[in-house]
């Protein structure tokens, strides 16, 4: 069979109707509008349908291991804090397999933008329960309905020192893109939990479902500097609020590392290492 | 029987009473006399309570191992008087403090000479606190071996200087009180070891040497999660981070540790991580990421007995088979196993270079014995030059609009770009990928990339250094790896005195396996035996796997203790039926 010449980057291979298309466009727009040159961005991708975006963008990318996208993102930022680092990750990877990284790196306020494609399923592996699946949902791994209560990523982030916490719907592309732009310019750990449609493995939570179940924080006059109000919003059960829950200005991790005050680590020149002082202790 | 100009000293007592500092001061004092040392510590995995010991073997010529028989044992509590009887010989002298520790020496049935040194009383009488009693023991030890009290005072100055002049003086006065008391009651040293002029030794534990070697090799980022016996690398590097101008990150777990380091390395920073067996298991998935994405990384694995939590503060050589294969499928890696502080410094420094040159994983293998034992070593210079290699300075996007980072070539080693560089776009990918890093499941691309990585491995074989080989015209060749070298050398010395010659072949280079060197040595017309710290003979199995040579003689030890030279001596005599 004759193969068509490969187009670079690849054309998206997501299913028709997948929320990832909209999210990718929102990310592209946000980067273009950010005012930073494209080469200053790195996107770290987790393994999942969402992470397959790595093949569809023309930028520096790091497609790591499942659940482990956050640590390399923090490492890249430590190595070169002039870079803008974005994480593209699924709810399975971020809140399940890699939850330790999520919980701990947010405490450090590492300056990374974490975009969680929250479709409430493990989609790449064909539709098992994820940490955000509602209790009682039948999935491939829980045919009689899941027993666990779902994880509440927003409440977790609010109580655990993340400094930029938002939820957006993947269908509202301009709004999502604007929020991603804000997250990118925020100096510190930014989480956007993106409600994403997976029409194949989670057909119930479709466009209509989200219309009925979401409310706008902005319309409700929510004050995003008020942590207690953010907490109340995050704990709501009858509706899923979307918008900016909470934002605080706190120094990012790298700005508190004394060795990085003199510039980016990657530019610390090691061509001559003088160890005279260091070795004195071993005499 | 004691070889001239050597001494074997041990201090024992409860954890938390400064045993480690006392031993360190004694050891540094010896080294400043121009004499070589080998320090060995034993302690349980407890913070307070439990029995701690610090042992210093010193020799003008060669100090490579701990010896069993003690010249002096300083007992800082009662248990020390009872726990070490098999380490006594005719001339052992035991020192204790009858008043303070309420000791009735008769009850302990000591088969050797002993001496009551009122350490606490002398410390307080000399104006110090009871905590300074250990310095009385140090001063007394100076007299016992005819050593120079002034040199001890210098070390006390350097170790306690930060705490202020008053503390230094009080500690020095306590040392003098111990020295004078010994002089008054003994009149002369029990044995003497002569000072050597013009020797300017450094003393380092294996972990200190690994830390310093990494810095010399241009380390920029060290990430780790504490795990004995690797933790002191984290401690040393964190403490020295400012002076060394490096970043040290204690991350959330070992998976975070290695993935963070890989991210940093991808962004152009020389990175290293450290752990022990358990943490290394956690890291194993990401070892493959380093392999497939060709991201340079140095990993320290300091072994302790396992499986699982095993025996945290004891020694073993039981992870080596796992280390050479850990992770999915196949990819090139270097594995080196330094034997002592000198090699630990040099090989870690080299590891930093090799990982960058071949864009690959380098695993530095240590064990508790190497990591925490102190050795004398020498460096010709305190300045080190590093050259960064493998970076494309002026990347060009090719016709498809990407930089072909993984383009196949004769060497298999491509040039890297780093984020921030214009027109250097590529994808660093854990999936099998094409020359730009885009995921590919095409058979042809897969084979090309596997072969490309394999080409690197062929070149890596050219980096194998000569292994440590002593051809003494021996009746037998002892084969070992890593830290076991020291005990084998010490055994060779003892055997020599008994008229038996042995050859020594110690591997510090495990992977790529030094096939030719091993074949050459093992095909000599002399029987050989493999000496290693595990229960199945893993090095032996690797030798067989790589050379086809069968192993018939093995000396294996897996009780958590290092080899003692006398054990190797007995084994050789038994095997040779002598
Ligand atoms: C260590 C490991 N475990 C399991 C997998 C298989 N796996 C790949 S993606 C995935 C879950 C994907 O779900 P999510 O992270 O929510 O992303 P989505 O596909 O929904 O975008 C799993 C379990 C893997 N690649 N690696």
Which structural class is indicated by helix and strand composition of chain B?
Answer: alpha/beta
- Spans of chain B of at least 5 consecutive residues whose pLDDT stays below 50 are none
First and last CA, distance of chain B: 20 Å
Radius of gyration of chain A: 20 Å
- Spatial strand arrangement across the major sheet of chain A: 2-1-3-4-8-7-10-9
Question: How do the SSEs of chain A run, as a string of H and E?
Answer: HEEHEHHEEEHEHEHEHEEH
Query: What structural category do the secondary elements of chain A indicate?
Result: alpha/beta
Keywords for this structure?
heterodimer; A: 283 residues; alpha/beta; Rossmann fold; eight-stranded mixed β-sheet; two-stranded antiparallel sheet; 9 helices; 11 strands; B: 578 residues; Pyruvate-ferredoxin Oxidoreductase, domain 3; 3 domains; seven-stranded mixed β-sheet; 19 helices; 38% helix; binds thiamine diphosphate
Describe the structure.
- The complex is a heterodimer of chains A (283) and B (578).
- Chain A has a single domain (20-251), classed as Rossmann fold.
- Chain A is globular and about 70 Å long.
- In chain A, helix 3 crosses helix 4 and helix 5 packs antiparallel against helix 8 (227-234).
- Chain A has 283 residues and is α/β, with parallel strands linked by helices.
- Chain A contains 9 helices and 11 strands.
- Chain A is 29% helix and 18% strand.
- In chain A, strand 9 (214-216), helix 8 (227-234) and strand 10 form a beta-alpha-beta unit.
- In chain A, the strands form 2 sheets. Chain A has an 8-stranded mixed beta sheet, with helices on both faces.
- Chain B has 3 domains: 6-200, 3-Layer(aba) Sandwich (Pyruvate-ferredoxin Oxidoreductase, domain 3), CATH 3.40.920.10; 203-377, 3-Layer(aba) Sandwich (Rossmann fold); 468-575, Rossmann fold (3-Layer(aba) Sandwich), CATH 3.40.50.920.
- The longest helix of chain B has 22 residues, at 165-186.
- Chain B is globular.
- The relative contact order of chain B is 0.09.
- With 578 residues, chain B is an alpha/beta fold.
- In chain B, a hairpin with an 8-residue loop joins strand 2 and strand 3 (51-59).
- Chain B contains 19 helices and 22 strands.
- In chain B, helix 5 (133-144) crosses helix 7 (165-186) and helix 6 (149-160) runs antiparallel to helix 7.
- In chain B, strands 6-5-4-1-3-2-14-7 form an 8-stranded mixed beta sheet.
- The interface between A and B is large, with 60 and 79 residues.
- Bound molecules: thiamine diphosphate.
- Thiamine diphosphate binds next to helix 3 and strand 5 of chain A.
């Amino acid at each position: 069979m004759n193969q068509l010449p490969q187009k670079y980057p690849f054309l998206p291979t997501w299913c028709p109707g997948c929320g990832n298309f909209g999210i990718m466009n929102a990310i592209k727009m946000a980067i273009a509008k950010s005012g930073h040159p494209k080469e200053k961005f790195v996107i770290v991708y987790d393994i999942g349908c969402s992470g397959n975006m790595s093949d569809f963008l023309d930028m520096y990318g790091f497609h790591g291991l499942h659940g482990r996208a956050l640590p390399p993102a923090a490492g890249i930022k430590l190595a070169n804090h002039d870079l803008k680092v974005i994480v593209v990750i699924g709810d399975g990877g971020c809140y399940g397999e890699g939850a330790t990284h999520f919980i701990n790196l947010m405490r450090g306020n590492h300056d990374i933008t974490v975009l969680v494609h929250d479709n409430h399923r493990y989609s790449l592996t064909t539709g098992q329960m994820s940490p955000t699946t509602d209790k009682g949902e039948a999935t491939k791994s829980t045919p009689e309905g899941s027993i666990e209560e779902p994880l509440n990523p927003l409440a977790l982030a609010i109580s655990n020192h993340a400094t930029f916490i938002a939820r957006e719907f993947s269908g509202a592309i301009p709004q999502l893109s604007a929020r991603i732009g804000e997250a990118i310019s925020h100096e510190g750990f930014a989480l956007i939990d993106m409600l994403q449609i997976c029409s194949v493995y989670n057909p119930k939570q479709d466009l209509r479902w989200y219309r009925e179940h979401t409310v706008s924080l902005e319309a409700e006059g929510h004050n995003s500097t008020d942590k207690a109000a953010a907490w109340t919003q995050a704990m709501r059960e009858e509706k899923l609020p979307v918008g900016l829950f909470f934002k605080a200005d706190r120094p990012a991790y790298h700005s508190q590392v004394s060795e990085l005050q003199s510039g980016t680590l990657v530019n610390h020149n090691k061509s001559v290492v003088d160890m005279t002082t260091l070795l004195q202790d071993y005499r | 029987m004691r070889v001239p100009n050597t001494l074997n000293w041990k201090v024992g007592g409860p954890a938390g009473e400064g045993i480690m500092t006392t031993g360190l001061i004694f050891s540094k004092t010896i080294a400043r006399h121009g004499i070589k040392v080998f320090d060995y510590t034993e302690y349980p995995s407890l913070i307070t309570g439990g029995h701690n010991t610090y042992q210093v073997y010193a020799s003008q010529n060669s100090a490579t191992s701990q010896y069993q028989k003690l010249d002096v044992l300083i007992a800082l509590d009662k248990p020390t008087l009872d726990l070490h009887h098999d380490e006594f010989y005719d001339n052992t002298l035991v020192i204790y403090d009858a008043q303070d520790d309420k000791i009735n020496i008769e009850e302990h049935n000591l088969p050797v000479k002993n001496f009551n040194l009122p350490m606490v009383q002398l410390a307080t009488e000399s104006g110090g606190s009871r905590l300074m009693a250990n310095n009385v023991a140090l001063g007394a030890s100076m007299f016992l071996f005819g050593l120079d009290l002034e040199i001890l005072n210098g070390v006390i100055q350097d170790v306690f200087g930060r705490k202020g002049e008053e503390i230094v003086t009080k500690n020095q006065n306590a040392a003098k009180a111990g020295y004078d008391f010994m002089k008054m009651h003994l009149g002369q040293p029990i044995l003497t070891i002569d000072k050597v002029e013009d020797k300017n030794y450094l003393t380092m534990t294996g972990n200190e040497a690994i830390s310093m070697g990494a810095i010399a090799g241009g380390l920029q980022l060290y990430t780790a999660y504490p795990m004995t016996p690797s933790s002191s690398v984290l401690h040393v590097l964190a403490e020295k981070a400012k002076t060394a101008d490096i970043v040290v990150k204690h991350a959330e777990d070992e998976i975070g540790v290695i993935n963070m380091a890989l991210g940093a390395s991808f962004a152009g920073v020389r990175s290293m991580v450290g752990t022990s067996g358990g943490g290394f298991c956690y890291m194993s998935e990401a070892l493959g990421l380093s392999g497939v994405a060709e991201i340079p990384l140095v990993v320290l694995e300091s072994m302790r007995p396992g499986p699982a939590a095993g025996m945290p503060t004891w020694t073993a050589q039981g992870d080596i088979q796992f280390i050479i294969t850990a992770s999915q499928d196949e990819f090139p890696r270097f594995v080196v196993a330094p034997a002592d502080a000198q090699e630990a410094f040099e090989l870690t420094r080299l590891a930093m270079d090799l990982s960058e040159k071949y864009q690959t994983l380098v695993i530095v293998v240590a064990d508790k014995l190497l990591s925490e034992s102190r050795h004398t070593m020498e460096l010709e210079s305190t300045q080190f030059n590093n050259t960064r290699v493998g970076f494309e300075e002026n990347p060009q996007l090719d016709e498809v609009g990407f930089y072909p980072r993984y383009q196949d070539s004769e060497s298999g080693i491509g040039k890297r770009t780093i984020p921030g560089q214009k027109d250097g776009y590529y994808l660093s990918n854990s999936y099998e990928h094409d020359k730009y890093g885009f995921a590919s499941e095409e058979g042809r691309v897969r084979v090309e990339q596997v072969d490309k990585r394999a080409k690197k491995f062929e070149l890596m074989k050219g980096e194998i250094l000569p292994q440590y080989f002593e051809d003494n015209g021996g009746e037998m060749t002892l084969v070992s790896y890593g830290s076991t070298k020291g005990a084998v050398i010490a055994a060779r010395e003892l055997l020599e005195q008994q008229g038996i010659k042995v050859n020594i072949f110690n591997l510090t280079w495990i992977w790529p396996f030094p096939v030719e060197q091993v074949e050459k040595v093992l095909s000599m017309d002399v029987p050989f035996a493999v000496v290693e710290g595990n229960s199945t003979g893993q090095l032996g199995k690797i030798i067989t796997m790589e050379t086809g040579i069968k192993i018939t003689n093995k000396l294996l030890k897996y009780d958590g203790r290092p080899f003692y030279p006398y054990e190797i001596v007995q084994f050789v005599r038994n095997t040779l039926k002598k």
